[in-house]
């Protein structure tokens, strides 16, 4: 067999993104909406797809969907760009504002895709580790920005996987302090009810990322969008794949976005369930849940790996972050339906109780 030369050097040692998805009765590992789109919306989607000409290329810029999003946000179409999931737009950010000789500022622990995209594009990453409570070390961030070499910054608000949003006054001071492009990743903003969108009017260096994958139950469809000033959108347009958002996804996105008010009760339920699960976790000995503005809760406990196994054996898939730096012994549980949340809580409590009994027996022996 003829040999192949090595792939690009920045790929050496790189591990492909792995969502660690496994079949389970309760899928609480990927921060998805536990409820699918309802039957009426599904019928409207089916009718819309029936009208899609499959033999024709889609509108490269998804302009109809773009207009809907622009109108809802009080913006012009030129301030919106739709992508194949937020993930594509995150990659486009690294292509457009990163590259050899360029640098991004990152606040780990955070969404791992940010650092991976930087590496793929040969962008240098400056990490400013979050404090023990996962808040951003603001003084360190401003001091580093003052050196003047940062080309882009990403702040997830709320931050995945830790849970809380970034303080609004910090984001505004950050935007004021730099001419770097600042992406505020609002993939979960429907659960925090907070956005920096008003700052678009005064800050050319702001880009906001949103997604249809969470509040709008469309993780399987792959739709995300950015809001920014037209000059920023124009740069993103230069690097994007022309037809990355297919015609079927555009049709689905338009129906769902027009009917987005129907997702509101589901969002409210998730927010209420988050409070209930938080209370139950706080009342569970040896479990430390971190506060959350999103649709999941990060928790720390001894034997997190064994707890993951126990939960999975009981039918609940959560995400194990215990091997991630700064997240030792941490699990992340997505807020599911009340039934799924009850199953999770009862299994976790059973694990803690059984472990307590085992420890007591070992102490007596
Ligand atoms: N940002 C954050 C913080 C996320 O957690 C995710 C999804 N895991 C995304 C962006 C991208 O989501 P999607 O590609 O599904 O739109």
UniProtKB/TrEMBL annotation:
Cofactor: pyridoxal 5'-phosphate
PROSITE patterns linked to this entry: AA_TRANSFER_CLASS_2 (PS00599)
Pathway: Amino-acid biosynthesis; L-histidine biosynthesis; L-histidine from 5-phospho-alpha-D-ribose 1-diphosphate: step 7/9
The keyword S-adenosyl-L-methionine appears for this protein: no
Record carries keyword Amino-acid biosynthesis: yes
Domain Aminotransferase class I/classII large: 28-344
GO molecular function terms noted in the UniProt entry: histidinol-phosphate transaminase activity; pyridoxal phosphate binding
Reaction(s) catalysed (UniProt annotation): L-histidinol phosphate + 2-oxoglutarate = 3-(imidazol-4-yl)-2-oxopropyl phosphate + L-glutamate
Any one of the GO BP annotations: L-histidine biosynthetic process
UniProt xrefs under InterPro entries: Aminotrans_II_pyridoxalP_BS (IPR001917), Aminotransferase_I/II_large (IPR004839), HisP_aminotrans (IPR005861), PyrdxlP-dep_Trfase (IPR015424), PyrdxlP-dep_Trfase_major (IPR015421), PyrdxlP-dep_Trfase_small (IPR015422)
E.C. designation(s): 2.6.1.9
Top-level EC class: transferase
N6-(pyridoxal phosphate)lysine carried by residues: 214
Keyword annotations of the record: Amino-acid biosynthesis, Aminotransferase, Histidine biosynthesis, Pyridoxal phosphate, Transferase
Top-level taxon of origin: Bacteria
Family: Belongs to the class-II pyridoxal-phosphate-dependent aminotransferase family. Histidinol-phosphate aminotransferase subfamily.
NCBIfam families, A to Z: hisC (TIGR01141)
UniProt xrefs under HAMAP family: HisC_aminotrans_2
Quaternary structure annotation from Swiss-Prot or TrEMBL: Homodimer.
Name of this chain's protein: Histidinol-phosphate aminotransferase
Organism per entry: Adlercreutzia mucosicola
